[in-house]
Amino acid sequence: MALTAETESRLYRSLRAAAGAAAHLVALGFTTAVAVLARPGSSLFSWHPLLMALAFSFLMTEALLIFSPETSLLRSFSRKVKVCVHWVLQLLAFLCALLGLGIITYNKHLNGKAHFVTWHGLMGLLTVLYTSGQCAGGLLLLYPKLMKNWTLAKLKLYHATSGLVGYLLGCASLMLGMCSLWFTTSVTSIFWYLAMLCPLLTSLVIMNQVSNAYLYRKRSQH
Measured between alpha carbons, how far is 102 from 154 in angstroms, rounded to an integer? Predict the structure, then answer.
């Protein structure tokens, strides 16, 4: 028996709500697990994985899920409040990432190791640089008059899509970090595969959210 359009829509919304709730739990759970493994304070390096997981797994995920119509923790709040919280979370994520990059750079300097010679290191550097540009670009949404030839709707579209790219870069950097010697000696067997699934799950949820909020809407207007 074929499902009606209304039933399909309700089922789709339920699946999105379930996936969004899972993304909240995965973001928190993954960051907590990394904190336990890293034991922050046990060494200078121990702060690097914690700060990067905090930035790209937890803070950035929550900053984007703020706008989810199904699973936002601030659903009952106004758009203005959501934007303010989004800004705060994204700024904290950027600061954590910048500090994490500084710590690992200084740690390599102390140990006489080369900088940015692995895919993880290069991706991490690219991600932090991209995130800084994304934060600067977000200022245009606060002061759209600076871009006289651009509509606010177009600025929002480009900010959302470029933000998605930045988020995917962050998740890719986390996954490459899980291929490092430190992580593979700490996490083995099925637990390593489960850890790798965490950024994949949150990436899919965020991609679906942005596609539905901006890209699909834009296509439907043509």
Answer: 35
- Compute the distance between CA of residue 138 and CA of residue 128 in angstroms, rounded to an integer: 15
Contact yes or no for 107/44 (Cβ under 8 A): yes
Classified as helix, coil or strand, 179 is coil
Angle between the N-to-C axes of helices 189-210 and 152-177, in degrees from 0 to 180, rounded to the nearest 10: 170
Mean pLDDT check: name the lowest of 25-29, 31-35, 153-157: 153-157
How does pLDDT run across 101-150, given as a tens digit for each residue?
999 999 999 999 998 999 999 999 999 999 999 988 887 777 777 677 77
Rounded-to-integer distance, Cα 154 and Cα 97, Å = 28
Average model confidence (pLDDT) across the chain? 90
| Long-range CB contact pairs, 157-164, < 8 A, 24+ | 157/214, 157/218, 159/134, 160/210, 160/213, 160/214, 161/210, 161/214, 161/215, 162/134, 162/137, 163/64, 163/134, 163/210, 164/206, 164/207, 164/210
- CA–CA distance, 101 with 202 (Å, rounded to integer): 23
Q: Are the CB atoms for 132 and 94 separated by under 8 Å?
A: yes
Q: What is the pTM of this model?
A: 0.90
For the chain, first and last CA: distance in Å?
A: 33
* Rounded CA separation 214/150 (Å): 16
